[in-house]
Amino acid sequence: MALGKPMAVKNSSNPAKISPVAASPSDDEKRALGWAHTARFRTTASQLDQLPQTELPEIAFVGRSNAGKSTAINTLTQQKRLAFASKTPGRTQHINLFDLGPKLAADALFADLPGYGYAAVARGAKLRWQQVMADYLAVRRSLVGLVLMIDSRLGFTELDHRLLSFVAPRVGNGSVKLLVLLTKSDKLNRTEASAALAQAQAVLGALATDEADVGVSLFSALKKSGVGDAARVLYGWVHP
Ligand code: GDP
What we know:
240 residues; alpha/beta; 8 strands
């Protein structure tokens, strides 16, 4: 059984099957990883109105601080320091945008959104962040997909639920797709990994509609598991 494979979440009474991962990377996976590798920094913004208005499909990465978001972005793009800017003091509350695709013909953007839930952040800053995040998820027209990083040992916290509630209408009507990566899965044994997947599927079942496109996958940057599958999902979102 290959637990790294992203599973579609249809509804909780109809758990998706877990199909085996191919022994060697498929052409699809190579193409998707090659595309992800083209990611390069475009711009940073501390407010929504500073984001460029673009027609390019945008995929946003979100998660609690320390969930493994920067590591996941670096692993997916096979670049050591791409998401490093987001960690620079003073930049932690910024939205960082990356171009993907051919050099002179970008075909998508990744948006690295500020991590949330960091205890040391003052209440005012937290509330401000929450508003920026809620607005971004509600109004960013070019947003086509959301990748939510959840620490596989912690599961969904209250802030993760709140984030999902911000985007639930757009996930429900199918205009924004959702992939949940259960990060640091190398720290779990098989039983724990199955339990983490089951918990995530139960949470995400609440978002399931006929239009919704929701997936969940175990992910380990350390073991490089779930990486090719996640890349394929993201590639598919912008190259339907
Ligand atoms: P962020 O705050 O969400 O961007 O989280 P980071 O990417 O900085 O990761 C937080 C911590 O988790 C760091 O100490 C990482 O080394 C660790 N981490 C991230 N991904 C993995 C993983 O796949 N396996 C393990 N064991 N640790 C990881």
